[in-house]
Design a protein that fits this description.
By secondary structure, the chain is an alpha/beta fold. The chain is about 45% helix and about 15% strand. It has a single domain, classed as TIM Barrel (Alpha-Beta Barrel), CATH 3.20.20.150. The strands form three sheets. An eight-stranded parallel beta barrel has the order 2-3-4-5-6-7-8-11, surrounded by six helices. Strands 1-12 form a two-stranded antiparallel sheet. Strand 5, helix 7 and strand 6 form a beta-alpha-beta unit.
Length: about 300
């Protein structure tokens, strides 16, 4: 946890809205495994039905140093209480999910979405969280250019505040079969085009393996977008191309090793967050499935060659 964390200092009030409506190789050595564990995180969406205490204890038992927070959980558990538990277990926060809905397709006013996003960014900064994950909202009745403009204007403004708070905003595209209710960005190209138009260093991409590997152009796009990737979420699918169901890394047939090797070869140095929406895992009451997935990742994950 960051040295500045003080549970008594946090306030969700903010004036912002009022003021501005190598080459890689495999290794199984303990040193390499430690390096992998330091870059891995467990998203609370993977353990959706577990309690906050169970989530953090599971991450600790797995040897992880990072956890990805889900807003519904920490808001229900309490912001200060969450911070105390994280500090007690010396657990870092890799990301907070979600903010967004800037197209207002779900019925919320854009001012409310912006105010909510500011509060999450402020909380992320206080916790020392690196990233806030963004779902733009559906296109709704807007034409594409107007939906893009709404999101670009919102992210450009929020990017300024995020920069002040030392927080990254990571926009996550989804496959077309999954995007309903979440986003109109259904390809890496569309997402990259949007964040490029934001022209802000604190606004980038969240690359989710389940969705990215369904994009037929992911290999061609990766060298172009790698410098904008703020976070990589890791998930497998039950079939290699158009899976209907998600599963934990190593349980499916998607080419995760190819994605990992490509990212590491392009010198991606950020975090990987296990983020799997899977009924099988949600029903599990222990970490056996997670441990098995983690063991698989240790066997295939590339690490930078040492000199």
């Amino acid at each position: 946890m960051p040295d500045h964390l003080n549970v008594g200092e946090y306030s969700s009030n903010d004036k912002f809205i009022q003021q501005s409506s190598t080459k890689v190789e495999k290794s199984s050595s303990s040193e390499d495994n430690h390096a992998l564990l330091s870059r891995l995180s467990l998203s609370q969406m993977t353990t959706r039905r577990w309690s906050m205490e169970q989530d953090i204890q599971a991450a600790c038992d797995l040897g992880l140093k990072n956890i990805g927070l889900w807003r519904l959980k920490y808001e229900d558990f309490g912001e200060a209480e969450t911070a105390e538990l994280l500090e007690k277990h010396r657990m870092n926060v890799s990301s907070i999910s979600w903010v967004g809905g800037f197209t207002s397709a779900h019925g919320y006013l854009i001012d409310d979405c912006m105010r909510e996003a500011v509060q999450v960014i402020r909380y992320a900064s206080w916790l020392g969280a690196k990233t806030v994950v963004v779902a733009t909202g559906e296109q709704g009745r807007h034409i594409t250019s107007h939906a893009q403009r709404l999101v670009i204007d919102s992210l450009s403004l929020l990017g300024e505040y995020a920069q002040e708070c030392n927080v990254q905003l990571a926009v996550m595209p989804m496959s077309s079969a999954t995007a309903h209710g979440w986003t109109f960005l259904t390809s890496l190209h569309k997402a990259y085009d949007l964040i490029t138009k934001c022209k802000h260093p604190n606004v980038g991409l969240c690359l989710h393996s389940y969705h990215a590997l369904q994009d037929s152009k992911w290999k061609q796009m990766l060298p172009q977008i790698v410098d904008t990737i703020k976070l990589v979420k890791v998930c497998d699918g039950v079939s290699p191309k158009r899976p209907r169901k998600q599963c934990l890394p190593g349980e499916g047939k998607m080419d995760l090793p190819a994605l990992f090797h490509a990212l590491e070869s392009l010198e991606y140095q950020g975090l990987y967050e296990i983020d799997t929406w899977c009924e099988k895992n949600w029903k599990s009451k222990n970490i056996d499935l997670l441990q098995s997935s983690l063991n698989w990742m240790k066997t295939i994950f590339p690490v930078p060659a040492t000199t």
